[in-house]
Write a structure and sequence with these properties.
414 residues; alpha/beta; Rossmann fold; 8-stranded mixed sheet; 5-stranded parallel sheet; elongated
């Protein structure tokens, strides 16, 4: 099963996903430039476009040519004056990119020192290692966001105490809607650790899973996290649940918290399938979310479970984000009306998504997504409207404080 990016998006036109990072490359010989391009091309978590520019000539932008976020300059180790003139000239360019000097192995320490003094923001060895390149380009990406090129980052968690209401399918479909409308980098987190439904819906068999992050003696950073992500044919990244059910017990809330902090830094949008089981990891996810989306249907059992969830959420004392409700598989002629649902919850619904058994059956049988099924226009338009609502809301920074038991004890004064 391939886990490479899809070659076409759902409406049949050629995929035109903008690279996450544009990098200009100059200097050196063809072999050295090829080694850098090969390393950058294999980073996985970063989508990078590399454009070669003429050595030691001013880089001209405009007329539709995008300014790069990073410039990699392969420097001669014999002429430090040349380095300074070239690097400072690059840095003086209006809207100067993050400059990375790539230096040859001879006299490495002297070369690195000279490159940094000459004005480089970072230094790579030749040929660069994968970790070196990822570190440098992640720094360049972070600075690009700080300079005003950032999109608002959001984390959405989806949950329901009632099974079978479509939490997993909604997690995937909201991700696809956001990616289609806004061309964001999307990651899905499979926190329904025992059922592990997202991998099945994406039709991938991950080589590594979130279990690889369970070791408490090693910090979770971008490089470690990137090594356990897989990318589906739909272009969405997945942090998969453990391969074995019993491995789920080894995943601590601390690991989940550290993972979510790094996920937010790496991706524009993170969607978490929390399933129907509440534990300390669920609480950590909610505390780090910009949106907590509770999924219901038009049944008494689903609505009663939602009321119990609201009571729990209030006892937990999570103040930074209020849960919003999505009515899934909505039927207009149901005896349980929207007004009755909203009255029972004392909340307005964020969205109602129509029941479309025909389209969802075709999804299951064909393996296609809703944007490739002609009959699914109504559900697609509703999902896209929901995606716009989520991205229109202002995201707030959240901080996790304590676990499930400690919050419950605090709420009742124990």
């Amino acid at each position: 099963m391939s886990i490479e990016p899809a070659s076409e998006i759902s409406n049949g036109r050629k995929a035109a996903r903008r690279p996450h990072l544009r990098v200009a490359l100059t200097g050196g010989n063809p072999s050295e430039r090829a080694s850098i391009k090969e390393t950058i091309g294999g980073l996985g978590v970063l989508e990078v476009e590399v454009v070669e520019v003429e050595e030691f000539q001013p880089i001209k932008f405009g007329n539709g040519v995008a300014r790069p976020a990073a410039l990699i300059v392969i420097l001669e180790d014999q002429n430090q004056v040349h380095w300074r003139r070239d690097l400072r000239g690059r840095k003086a360019t209006e809207g100067a990119p993050f400059v990375i000097a790539a230096v040859r192995g001879d006299h490495m320490h002297q070369s690195w020192s000279a490159a940094l003094k000459a004005g480089a923001d970072d230094v790579l060895s030749l040929p660069p290692t994968r970790d070196e390149a990822l570190r440098s380009l992640l720094r360049a990406s972070a600075l690009q966001h700080q300079d005003g090129g950032a999109v608002e980052k959001i984390v959405c968690s989806l949950v329901s105490l009632s099974g079978g209401v479509g939490v997993t399918s909604l997690t995937l479909d909201i991700g696809l809607a956001i990616e289609r409308l806004f061309d964001r980098r999307i990651a899905l987190v499979e926190l329904d650790l025992q059922a592990a439904p997202l991998a099945s819906m994406l039709d991938v068999v991950p080589e590594r899973t979130i279990s690889a992050l369970s070791d408490p003696t090693s910090a979770i950073d971008s490089i470690r996290l990137e090594s356990v992500l897989c990318k589906s044919d739909l272009g969405l990244y997945l942090l998969a649940a453990p391969k074995k059910i019993e491995e789920a017990e080894l995943l601590s809330a601390d690991t989940v918290e550290a993972t979510m902090k790094v996920m937010r830094s790496l991706f524009d949008t993170v969607l978490v399938d929390c399933g129907s089981h509440v534990n300390e990891s669920s609480v950590v996810i909610w505390e780090h979310s910009d949106h907590v989306l509770y999924v219901i249907d038009q049944s008494v059992t689903s609505i009663r479970a939602a009321q119990r969830f609201l009571e729990l959420y209030e006892r937990l004392g999570i103040k930074n984000v209020k849960p919003a409700f999505i009515l899934n598989r909505y039927v207009a002629h149901s005896p349980i009306t929207v007004e009755q649902v909203e009255t029972a919850l004392n909340r307005r619904l964020l969205a109602r998504l129509p029941r479309d058994d025909k389209s969802f059956l075709e999804v299951q049988v064909s393996g296609q997504n809703l944007w490739k099924i002609a009959s699914a226009s109504a559900i697609r338009s509703n999902l896209e409207a929901l995606a716009r609502k989520l991205l229109a809301a202002e995201a707030e920074e959240t901080t996790a404080k304590g676990g499930l038991l400690s919050r419950l004890r605090g709420a009742v004064g124990l």
